[in-house]
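USER: Please consider what follows.
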Amino acid sequence: MHLENSVTAAGFWLGILLPIAYLPVFFTGIDSTETLSIFLGLVVVHAAALVIGHDYTGSRSR
């Protein structure tokens, strides 16, 4: 159970912090297939992190 809690916490915090990684992509522009692939990869990882971290108990008020 401890590993499951750790994975959920990591998913939660990755979902919170990952949008910072979008900024360089937006500032440089999506002007090539390589940049588009990086952007789409970030979106997929972000969505997965949100799904995995959804049940993180540390994010809820008591």
About this structure: Residues 2-57 form one domain.
